[in-house]
Amino acid sequence: MVPDVDVVVVGGGIGGLSCALALSRAGRSVRVLERSASFGEVGAGLQLAPNATGALREWGLLDQVIARGVLPERIAMRDALDGRPLSHLDLADVRRRYGAPYVVMHRGDLHEILLAACRDAGVDLVTDAEVRAVENGAGWAEAVGERRRDRAELVIAADGLTSTLRAQISADEPVSSNYVAYRGAIPITDVSGLADLAVHDVVVYIGPRCHLVQYALRGGEMFNQVAVFESPAAVAGQPEWGGPEELDAAFAPACDAVRAALPFLWRDRCWRMYDREPIPNWVRGRLALTGDAAHPMLQYLAQGACQAIEDADCLGALAAKDAGKDADWEAVLAGYNDARPRRTGQVQRRARAWGELWHADGLFRAVRNELLRERDPADYRWVDWLYAR
Ligand SMILES: Cc1cc2nc3c(=O)[nH]c(=O)nc-3n(C[C@H](O)[C@H](O)[C@H](O)COP(=O)(O)OP(=O)(O)OC[C@H]3O[C@@H](n4cnc5c(N)ncnc54)[C@H](O)[C@@H]3O)c2cc1C
Questions:
Q1: How far is the CA of 304 from the centre of ligand 1 (A)?
Q2: pLDDT single digits (tens) 148-169
Q3: How far is the CA of 232 from the centre of ligand 1 (A)?
Q4: Is there an atom of ligand 1 within 6 Å of 69 CB?
Q5: Which of 21, 126, 247, 325 has the fewest C-beta atoms under 10 angstroms from its C-beta?
Q6: Active-site pick, 205, 215, 380, 387
């Protein structure tokens, strides 16, 4: 049987659409199979560092991304208990240093931009298409669902943290951090009464076993927050954890500015935070992993989606080497598997360590605060490894 398309991508989140676009730009025919009835994203914010916006620029999408996002001036850290400033990273120089800006935006907007770009590039976008397994053959793989089979030269699993297809490559399970996130993205006019709002910055209040992130979206029309805390019920091994009463208790000792911001979070939904151990191999035959299916990480470096975009950029560049000819998928997958798991493993590990630093208590917190206060705002040593492409 002849493959239907060159590449089938399973999952139409930011990771799947990025891969579909990058491979389509490399001259490959691509189909995306999404299990939901429509393509979409949760309505909260997303930080995009230069390692991701550089790829978006090469795909011709950066102007749209900037037009629908915000270019923050600084990433500013404050202590969540006393509210005092600790340190900030000046983002003014980021574009010159890394060749691309730091952007914050509504996830739905980025998803829409990627979806439209896929459509324009001729990607076949299919909904209501849950994939249960992938069968590998000689030079092909087939995505198998209840009602359809899609054969391609390559199948990419972009099916997220709880990926069904990852099990065909690795037997590991998601790892609970015992932390939970509450989000909220609302009109900025709703929070105009709050004191101490720094709408031109990404602000992170770090506190013992909790933190709060705030930034503006959509050219300053919306305000986004993420509150994260360790759940005592999760630590105690209880099956139900992360309820709003735990949110309130976790932030009860926080400063006025943090407590005043909490009522503006959505309280009817929370995200329990899991990652996985890094794995060195993402490929089996003609099946390969990307995005959260490959490298789910705690979001403390704000890099999960950025790394998915990097995956896509890498795959696209490798596939473009054979432009105009049949792709040498064995070589593409070998190059991808050589480059990406090493890089994302480092990001996954450092995200965990970053969380420990943010959530420190007692003497560790006091020492951390002293060190952060001494930091030069133009000292990019801590992010060069991450933001440079
Ligand atoms: C609180 C929080 C804040 C974050 N902040 C940031 C940030 O600021 N910056 C950043 O870069 N990252 C951030 N992240 C991480 C980022 O959201 C994820 O890494 C990214 O969205 C993963 O995209 P994905 O496409 O790989 O997976 P997903 O978004 O999970 O998409 C998977 C898609 O596959 C579909 N699917 C699943 N199974 C199947 C199947 N069997 N068949 C067909 N379709 C299937 C799903 O319906 C879904 O559409 C944050 C995460 C959290 C939780």
A1: 8
A2: 999 999 999 999 999 999 999 9
A3: 26
A4: no
A5: 325
A6: 215
Choice between 203 and 389, residue whose per-residue pLDDT is larger: 203
| pLDDT above 90 as % of the chain | 93
**Catalytic residue check, 300:** no
CATH number, domain 175-275+359-387, options 3.30.9.30, 3.40.50.2000, 3.30.70.2210, 3.30.70.330: 3.30.9.30
Domain locations in the chain as residue ranges: 5-39+127-173+276-353, 175-275+359-387
Q: What is the pLDDT of residue 1?
A: 63
Is domain 5-39+127-173+276-353 classified as CATH 3.50.50.60? yes
Is the CB of residue 266 below 6 angstroms from any atom belonging to ligand 1? no
Count the helix, strand and coil residues of the chain and give each as a percent rounded to the nearest 5. Answer: 40, 25, 35
Residues in the chain, overall count: 389
Does pLDDT of 276 surpass 90? yes
pLDDT value of residue 325: 87
Among 42, 107, 159, which is best to mutate for testing ligand 1, by the most ligand atoms less than 8 A from CB? 159
Q: With 90 as the cut, is the pLDDT of residue 295 above it?
A: yes
* Local confidence band at 310 (pLDDT 50, 70, 90 cut-offs): very high
Report the nearest-CA residue for atom 34 of ligand 1.
11
Q: How confident is the model at residue 2 (pLDDT cuts 50, 70, 90)?
A: low
Q: Is the pLDDT of residue 382 over 90?
A: no
pLDDT for res 42: 84
Exposure class string for 258-294: b at 16+ Cβ within 10 A, else e: bebbbebbeeeebbebbbbebbeebbbbbbbbbbbbb
Ligand 1 nearest atom to the CA of residue 104, by list position: 8
Going from the C-alpha of 136 to that of each of 85, 123, 150, 299, 380, the distances in angstroms are 54, 23, 12, 33, 45
